[in-house]
Amino acid sequence: MEREKFISWLKKEGPYSAREGERACVDAIAWVEATPGTPQELWEVCQRGGWMEWLLAVLTPLNAEYLAARAPLYAKYNAALPPLYAEYLAARAPLNEKYRAALAPLYAKHLAARASLIRKFYPAIPPVWEGK
Q1: Closest by CA position to 22, among listed 33, 11, 8
Q2: What is the pTM assigned to this prediction?
Q3: CA distances from 70 to 21, 67, 130 (A)
Q4: Which residues of 64-102 are buried (b: 16+ CB within 10 A; e: fewer)?
Q5: Residue 17 burial (CB < 10 Å; 0-12/13-18/19+)?
Q6: Does residue 18 carry a pLDDT above 90?
Q7: CB-CB neighbours of 11 under 10 Å
Q8: Rounded Cα distance, 56 and 63, in Å
Q9: What is the pLDDT of residues 90-113, one digit of tens each?
């Protein structure tokens, strides 16, 4: 598949595709557009395993042996995540508190303005509970 056709195909299978789960991400498309080479040459230099797996899964079912060989990689990665995520949450907590404190008055004004607007367009609550 020549480069232009490959890029066009990625865009069809990408953000504009209607098929969930079979979309090339925007970052992958941007990388392909910015990186010179044929589709095969791009394959050979790509460092994003997720992108490569996506392409394989769209083009052909993933090999059962590959999936079995991949399982320990996922297990190791998933085992390393909880402490990293806990550290991230702990570091983020003070920032979240500051953000929530700064957001509270803005959000209260926003909610009050929405309530006022709703009352303007709907002066009375529709009596749906009466079956009307």
Answers
A1: 11
A2: 0.55
A3: 20, 5, 59
A4: eeeeeeeeeeeeeeeeeeeeeeeeeeeeeeeeeeeeeee
A5: middle
A6: no
A7: 16
A8: 9
A9: 999 999 999 999 999 999 999 999
What tokens appear for 76 in the block? 């190791």
pLDDT tens column, 30-73: 999 999 999 999 999 999 988 888 888 888 777 889 889 999 99
User: What pLDDT score does 22 carry?
Assistant: 63
Cα separation, 5 vs 125, in Å, equals 56
- Own/partner contacts of 52-56, CB < 8 Å, gap of 24 or more, are 54/24, 54/25, 54/28, 55/24
